[in-house]
Structures are given as C-alpha cells and as structure tokens.
C-alpha cells in the first residue's frame, strides 16, 4: 500500500454510496480519479452508474472539494490489449478494411489505390507504484505517452483506504483518457 496524507479534491456520495479522491499529476493538467464504493462487492454497480449516464461523472467532478485526506492506495499495474477491427466495423467503419478502400488522397504513389487497413489495435497500461504513476497508450502507429508523477501537496479530515475493488480514471480536465477497474487490490 502507498500511504500519503495531504490536501486533495474529495467527494463522498451518499446516494450512490461511494467516495472519490483526485490525485493531481505534476505535469500537463492530468489527474487520477479513484472512485471507491462503500461496499466491497459494489464496484460493478458503481461502474454502471458512470457508464449509463455521463451526467453522473460531470456531477462528481463538479462536487469535489479540497479535504485533508489520509490516503492508502495499493500498488497496481493494469494492461489492456484490444483488437479494434471488429469494434470499428460495428460502428460502420468497414470500407477502410475492404480491398475497395480508397486511400489515394494519402499518397501520390500509384499503389496508393491498393492500400487498405488490415488490422487496428490499441494497447494501454497504467502502473501505480512508490515512484508515481505511468500511463501510456498506443493505437496503430499513433502513440501518446503520459509519464506522470502525482503531486501530494500537504478543511476536513477524511480517510480514503482503497482496500477493496475500485474504479480509476486518468483524466485531463473533464476528458477521460483511461478508465479501469481494480478488482483485487490485495493481489
């Protein structure tokens, strides 16, 4: 477990029964938001709260206030490797995968008319440890790398002990960059 006490944005929601804390990174306006359900087995229900209605996420962000938080979070590493071809096809983006795809505007080469996308993949990871957090994402040949450390700067006193399953979001302002669920923080 990583332990820190300091001033963080925090919210306790009595309707949906969760607590949330926002850990700011030193660079780029990025934050890690940890959303901890009150009950140990309620993380999937809480996930539905945010996935079904974006207003719940906006409400959470708008109601976070600075508290003196005693924070305990586990070290964890999250990795995801997705094949996006079927997802893109379900969204109606099928032409790019077809032999009839037209990428002639991308290249002056005579073979540009014979180009198509054969596959599309997305890989991401988040690593939280004593040194901070590292998060990165790669989609196809495009790469965005966020190497961030969180800032623990030193109101109400609250305890935030993430010792059971929780959601985590890496965000920039209100935009979600990553979202995940840590199902076994004691592993």
The assigned structural class equals mainly beta
- Described by its quaternary structure, the protein is single chain
Q: Which stretches of 5+ consecutive residues score pLDDT under 50?
A: 141-154
CATH superfamily grouping of the largest domain? Alpha-1-antitrypsin, domain 1
What value does the average pLDDT take? 79
SSE ordering: EEEHHEEHEEEEEE
**Number of continuous helical runs:** 3
**Level of helix content?**
10-25%
- Widest sheet: strand ordering: 9-4-1-2-3-10-11
Question: What percentage of amino acids are in beta strands?
Answer: over 45%
Instruction: Report, as a whole number of angstroms, the end-to-end distance.
Output: 11 Å
Number of strands: 11
CATH class value of the largest domain? Mainly Beta
Radius of gyration: 20 Å
CATH architecture of the largest domain: Roll
**What is CATH's topology name of the largest domain?**
Alpha-1-antitrypsin, domain 1
Largest sheet entry: 7 strands, mixed
Question: SSE layout and pairings?
Answer:
Elements: E1 2-13, E2 18-24, E3 30-37, H1 43-52, H2 54-62, E4 65-73, E5 76-83, H3 85-90, E6 121-129, E7 132-139, E8 142-148, E9 156-161, E10 166-172, E11 175-182
Parallel strand pairs: 4-9
Antiparallel strand pairs: 1-2, 1-4, 2-3, 3-10, 5-6, 6-7, 7-8, 10-11
Helix pairs in contact: 1-2
What this model shows, in words?
The chain has 187 residues and is mostly beta strands. It folds into two domains: 2-77 and 150-182, Alpha-1-antitrypsin, domain 1; 85-114, no CATH class. It has three helices and eleven strands, in the order βββααββαββββββ. It has helices at 43-52, 54-62, 85-90; strands at 2-13, 18-24, 30-37, 65-73, 76-83, 121-129, 132-139, 142-148, 156-161, 166-172, 175-182. The strands form two sheets. Strands 9-4-1-2-3-10-11 form a seven-stranded mixed beta sheet, with helices on one face. Helix 1 (43-52) packs across helix 2. The protein is elongated.
